[in-house]
Specification:
It is built from 15 helices and 23 strands. The protein has 455 residues and is an alpha+beta fold. The two termini are 29 Å apart. It binds adenosine-5'-triphosphate (ATP). Adenosine-5'-triphosphate binds next to strand 10, strand 13, strand 16 and helix 11.
Length: 455
């Protein structure tokens, strides 16, 4: 099979309504994407699968759905106003801006995230690193990634706020409210799915790095001496869950971040990486944040976040183990992993070999001919019946071969066709996406067939 390029993926996603460039009719908007009908279903499945696995099925996890714009002091307390910054260099001729560490990493094959400005300048000069357009670069300077917004009816310094830079901060300042209202005891976790915003200097490739994205995060509150087993558990658990979504194990790895790469609040940080066509890249992080967050919110708000152990009366500020995964980045991993091109009998077809749990539609139903009411009615009855249980696609356009190709490209595991034989003996053909093989089944048996295959 030929290597799949990012362009192949971009083209499929647009053609099949998975991902569109945002505001395309206005010429697009840099690094912003809209998820089309198929992409929206897939994101919806991923949110639900994640929420069910990590929140609803756990005794000691609860959820939160917080505001995107919170009090600006939240972001001072979290350290983002002061130090949520990446080092940036400018092409002295085109004035395009680049993330310094990315240029250095690409040129030298090292990890320079966390180098000081002086260290980056030195490496650039010593190795004569130029911009991607071949021009000299400016000295490095820091660029804060928080996205500022003005809210309220009067324009003054009080109206400046920030779009949240990560979903976890509202979890921290709500710690006590959640803990007391849900009667949880440590260790317990609070999870949240939602949008985060970062003024990234360098975006892409595609929707790997965007300025608006969605995160699925858990902050697990633990005793100060009890963080290590939870980190290990999260590492195993998250890989198992990712495997259950069908991601190839051989293309995933855990990588411990070096000291310099780590964010100011992380004492330990492990990335989960995927091998994209453009190299190994992070798509999830597991972090030990110590008591940084609750202490800082305590200092800035005046609220005491000390927790008292109910049995022993012991008092401490809880420590935090964090699990954080980017939803859209996970979708990109899944699509990259599932995209296959199959050559058979001189014909080629693109198949998105998604796990049925992730696929937008679990099955598609076709009447063989769109202009034969008896076929359409019978197919529609099957479609309506299945719809009560799963999202199902309907297609009556073009010939059946083309409909198969379309469904293969969006990853629909089974296609059910109602033909003339169906009118006589109440059977249908069921075609398997991965093998392209067809079986004849009685309509009565469809439910149990799909229930078994999709389990
Ligand atoms: P990176 O090193 O790629 O900038 P990060 O280490 O800053 O990521 P975290 O702050 O730990 O990322 O966020 C957790 C997850 O959120 C990441 O693993 C990623 O999946 C997702 N994420 C972070 N930034 C972006 C972004 N700009 N676009 C899309 N997803 C993102």
């Amino acid at each position: 099979m030929a290597d799949v390029t990012l362009n192949d993926i971009v083209s499929l996603c647009k053609r099949r309504g998975i991902v569109f460039p945002s505001s395309e009719v206005y010429g697009g908007w840099e690094a912003t994407y809209d998820f089309g009908p198929v992409g929206a279903e897939m994101l919806h499945n991923l949110r639900n699968l994640w929420w069910k696995e990590f929140i609803q099925s756990q005794k000691n996890m609860v959820g939160l759905d917080s505001a995107i714009i919170s009090h600006p002091r939240v972001w001072e307390a979290s350290g983002h106003v002061e130090s949520f910054a990446d080092a940036m260099v400018e092409d002295l001729e085109t004035h395009k801006r680049y993330r310094d560490d990315h240029l250095v990493d690409e040129a030298l094959g090292i990890v320079s995230d966390g180098y000081s400005l002086d260290e980056l300048d030195k490496v650039i000069v010593e190795n004569k690193i130029l911009s991607p357009d071949g021009n000299p670069l400016s000295k490095a300077k820091y660029f804060n990634q928080l996205v500022e917004v003005k809210v309220g009816t009067t324009e003054n310094s009080k109206s400046v706020a920030y779009l949240r830079g990560e979903t976890c901060q509202p979890i921290f300042y709500n710690f006590e409210l959640v803990q007391q209202s849900s009667r949880q005891q440590i260790p317990f976790g609070i999870g949240q799915i939602g949008k985060a915003f970062r003024n990234e200097i360098k975006v892409g490739p595609y929707f790997f790095r965007t300025r608006e994205f969605e995160q699925m995060e858990i902050e697990l509150f633990v005793r100060p001496d009890d963080w290590e087993p939870h980190i290990d558990r999260f590492k195993k658990w998250s890989i198992e869950w990712l495997k259950s979504l069908g991601i190839s194990e051989s293309k995933m790895r855990l990588r411990d971040q070096e000291f310099k790469e780590r964010a100011h609040y992380n004492k330990v940080a492990t990335d989960v990486e995927y091998e994209f066509s453009y190299g190994w890249k992070e798509f999830q992080g597991i972090h030990y944040r110590g008591d940084w967050d609750l202490k800082r919110h305590g200092e800035f708000s005046g609220k005491d976040f000390t927790y008292t152990e109910p049995k022993t009366g012991e008092k401490y500020i809880p420590h935090v183990v964090e699990y954080s995964i980017g939803l859209s980045r996970l979708l990109l991993v899944l699509i990259s992993d599932a995209y296959t091109v199959e050559e058979k009998d001189g014909k080629s077809r693109i198949v998105l070999r998604l796990d049925p749990k992730v696929a937008a539609y679990k099955a598609a139903v076709f009447p063989l001919m769109a202009n034969k009411p008896e076929l359409v009615d019978k197919a529609d009855a099957i479609y309506q019946g299945l719809l009560k249980q799963y999202p199902v696609a309907w297609d009556a356009r073009g010939n059946v071969g083309k409909r198969y190709y379309y469904q293969d490209e969006i990853g629909t595991p089974y296609c059910i066709t109602v033909d003339y034989e169906s009118l006589e003996d109440d059977t249908v053909t069921v075609r398997d996406r991965d093998t392209a093989e067809q079986v004849r089944l009685s309509i009565e048996d469809l439910d149990s067939f799909l229930a078994e295959k999709l389990a």
